[in-house]
């Protein structure tokens, strides 16, 4: 029964990793930008939620109404003012600039909020649980998983069923010809970053409800996001969610064997996938 | 008829390398101009500069319907009515045929072209509308590329090497449809390697060599000998 519980907890945790990964994967897909600051932006969203709950007295979930648009706005501005200037044939400049951004965000948060560990309080929701076949499933992890699935389904619909998604795919395919269709690449990229950071906002709030956070935990979230993308296979959103879930389950099983093995087990799964199936488990089928 | 497109001393650069030198040319509405010349003469550069993919150094070096547009970005020029069919077709591989056409029409300029109009121009595309671009034959891909450009209801259509890599019968089929386009007042500039095809389709011919216009005249009065000597500079 303990094992069943560990696996279910791992699946629910995996939803969060899927959220970490979805924004990362969207940005890489649309503009070949590897956002090293992704994890720190998740932490930034968590702090924004903290400020919103403390100053406005909002419920953490209600704070999403502020944090999601705020992060989207930050994403749009960040792309227009900074990251668009780094894009080109070379992958290195955006890598270096987002690495620098990661350091700036961490130190900025440290300066403002100190290194103390924080947490968002969800009140009664934190302890609420559903009994299921002898197990007890936390309502909060369940909600977080549901939000992750809904966000990825929404992203999938947007990509394949809307003019904006078509613009994302066209710009990803051939940015020069996309300009001939009347698409301003700078604007399209900024919209993609806005969407990515809206997902980051969801991830940040649920992360902050789940665990303690401090300004230094961003890079590890980035790694989990990366691992989920690689395990799932590039270019497939559902694959990314599946990658997140497998990573979550691996970590959870590792922790069940020995609490010190939680992170290690995830990394081992990642390395195994990389060694045996480097294209990921569910890469997008070639057309 | 007034000139729809007028080039006045147009230069173009790739970094420090100058690719076009003081190009002067005019294309009236409803007419077809052909640009010919050897590889590297600057033909594609000329089309890309007019379309805004390469930035023209001076605003008044390109006049479109009397307005100076040199140096404006491509996405603004599409909205004004300039469309380019790029060399090598370059369909968006992750978009279906219909999505490729729809994205061509996203600027929503008013005009005769719609999905239905494209499908009646190229009926084979209607049957294959849900197929991804790369699954089509070369000729069908070229039809999508032309249709995608037409979807923006352009007043000026620039076509870069639309016969390249296609079977002669397919090329004839595509060229046979061009007169129908200009009948509605659209001007057409075609870059073409196949000189006889270019002379047959165009009203006026411009021959480029090393970034300069070395021969210009009505297609009917340009002789093959003149073209040959302009091509090679002998």
UniProtKB/TrEMBL annotation, chain A:
The chain crosses the membrane at residues 6-29, 41-58, 64-83, 95-115, 135-158, 188-209, 229-249, 261-280. It comes from the Bacteria. CDD domains: TM_PBP1_LivH_like (cd06582). The keyword Disulfide bond does not apply. It is a multi-pass membrane protein. Belongs to the binding-protein-dependent transport system permease family. LivHM subfamily. This is Branched-chain amino acid ABC transporter permease. It comes from Roseomonas populi.
Automatic annotation (TrEMBL), chain B:
Residues 5-234 form the ABC transporter domain. Keywords: Amino-acid transport, ATP-binding, Nucleotide-binding, Transport. The keyword Flavoprotein does not apply. PROSITE patterns: ABC_TRANSPORTER_1, ABC_TRANSPORTER_2. One of its GO terms (molecular function) is ATP binding. Belongs to the ABC transporter superfamily. It comes from the Bacteria. This is ABC transporter ATP-binding protein.
